[in-house]
Amino acid sequence: MSDAEPEHPDLAAQERSEEPELDRGVVEAWAAKMISNPDRAYKSLFYIATIFFLLTTLYPFFWLLMVAITPSGSLNDVGVLTPGGFNPEAFIDIFQLLPFHRFMFNSFLIATVSTVLVLFVASLAGYVFGRLRFRGKTPLLLTVLVVSFFPPAAFFVPLNRLFNRNVDVLRPLLADGSLFNTPFAIVIPVSALYLPLSIFILMTFYAQIPDGLEDAARVEGTTRLGALFRVIVPLSAPGVATAGVLTFITVYNEYFFSSLMTDGRPEMWAPMLEGVLAFRGQYEILFNLMAAASIVAVLPVAILVIVAQEKIVSGLTSGALKE
Amino acid sequence: MSSETEEASTSLLMRPLNWLETRGDALFAYILLAPAFLLLAVVAFFPLIQTFRFSLRADAIRSADPFGAFVGFENYTNLLTGSAPLPQQFMDLSFGTPILQQALFVTLAFAIISVLFETLIGFGQALILDKEFYGRRWVRVAIIIPYAIPIVIQAMIFYLIFSPRIGFGTEFMQWLGVFGSNPLSNTTDSFLIVLVADVWKTSAFMALLILAGLQSIDRQLYDVAKVTGASPWQRFKYITMPLIAPPLLVAMLFRTMDAMRIYGLIDATAGCQTVPSMSCLVITALQATRRWASASAVAFLTAVTIGLVVVVYLIGLRDSEAGMT
């Protein structure tokens, strides 16, 4: 029953009690109550832990805001809980010193295009793995799974070479005929890397649709593909939303390819991360701008998490615990 | 006129669809899988093979083609014996530990320590989220938000906290006597910073997976245990732990694989020169020294190392399951 005891912060107070005592102090009375009523101890332990986790996860954001609203002159004064002054101009400066909105736009574009691509390709694959029976299903599924364990670094050298090569066929579309410095240089590798997760999520959802509904659609005269996109996908809307939200967030958050596949200029489709890091490179002193840029860049995902938290939770758990 | 062309275009679209419709189930399946596997082939399978082939060639730093003659496994032996001409930067220049061993050590140490802490903290968070209480939804949002934030911002937060001019982190750690004067250029200190940042962000992932495991446990087991007089600790030890073990191990495997890929967090905080993980080494070899073949060898070794860890893990998992039943 005394499991709760070591957790209690006032060990010193307990030691004090070894002196011949006369009246019980607040702490001792509290400890005695805990021992006589262990459920209470567990409950208070639970609240202490909850508050601790809330503080540790949210405090860094709070501090980031404190840095962001501190004027550049008094950055030395930023405290643990207080800003060094108040001047929210940093949130405007980030768009004036650098076209940070362009970086954000690039990131949004890359994440959206990747999400659409992944959802389409994963829908086809998820349909096949979830609803059809054919030879070689398990080996193919395992092959998809294997991809998710290789480090992106293992693919980088050939991809870098491939995307830097000038391909004449692409010349009418792209300035110098190479994919480097275009959104595709990020979209293609990132889509492939996050494809397996979406396939697994969609596979589970598509497999749950009763066969009868698909058959009914087929009797009505749609093709198998028509049945997929007119019946199965709409009925699995929660699953598609889950896969979409997760893909969008992971692509938006991706670092490896996003930092290596462009030269970092906003007009060359460099994503948001280059924008945040640029405040460190060019303007070493302007910590408040870095903080402000980080806050602006984190807002879209933060909102997405708050709106779609159920989807994220179910998607991550079903996708990762499938095997 | 316009309806005619429309008709023509729909029939043009319908023709492959109709053709597809008349194929057998297996062929239909393969055709639908084609886009997925094409994407995976271009981005993963083909490059992996290429990486291996590149790693067997010599470095050609000055010529237009970055790969020289075929040299067999020379790049690998150079890397393993420490004579590879890669930038030697950090940790112990004086002892001359081969760069690959340093990178291997950093990567493995990071993976083991971070996964350990993330599991413990994630478990704590999951136990809280498993309870019913007022405002649980918002506590859950708060706990999973770090997992959803971009790596670059996670890195930026901890870079700011530990940059000596502005953050309080360095002062605090110096007061504890752990950090030197400029932690972001010291390997050990930076390693700790990266570790803390990673634990902060990814504990939430472990928490979610463990929570899923916890919620699949039959609540009646707890009721029975309560009736028979088991304390909460006994309920945790004899019911929760054994039932949560399999999903927990799978979650740890996923995290380990992910932790061994670490690159972005390091690149955006201390820099790859200070804390060289294996992925970092690939990029420094490529960009700083333009040694494409050596970089390919490191990249392939990274994949092999992760593969080995996964295999060891799976064997351990199988043995432990065999031992339990």
Automatic annotation (TrEMBL), chain A:
Cite a single GO BP annotation. Answer: transmembrane transport
Q: Where in the cell is it found?
A: Cell membrane
Please give the start and end residues of each transmembrane region: 45-69, 103-128, 140-163, 183-206, 227-252, 285-308
* Chief location category: membrane
Record PANTHER family: INNER MEMBRANE ABC TRANSPORTER PERMEASE PROTEIN YCJP, MALTOSE TRANSPORT SYSTEM PERMEASE-RELATED
Q: Which family does it belong to?
A: Belongs to the binding-protein-dependent transport system permease family.
Protein's UniProt name: Carbohydrate ABC transporter permease
Which organism does this record belong to?
Halapricum hydrolyticum
From TrEMBL, chain B:
The answer on whether this UniProt entry bears the keyword Transmembrane helix reads yes
Q: Where in the cell is it found?
A: Cell membrane
Q: Which PROSITE patterns match?
A: ABC_TM1 (PS50928)
Which residue range or ranges hold the ABC transmembrane type-1 domain?
104-313
Where is this protein chiefly located? membrane
Q: Which residues cross the membrane?
A: 27-49, 103-129, 141-162, 191-214, 235-254, 298-316
Tell me which GO cellular component terms the UniProt record holds.
plasma membrane
UniProt cross-references to CDD domains, sorted A to Z: TM_PBP2
Recorded family membership: Belongs to the binding-protein-dependent transport system permease family.
Instruction: Tell me what this protein is called.
Output: Sugar ABC transporter permease
Q: What are the top taxonomic ranks of the organism? A: Archaea, Methanobacteriati, Methanobacteriota, Stenosarchaea group, Halobacteria
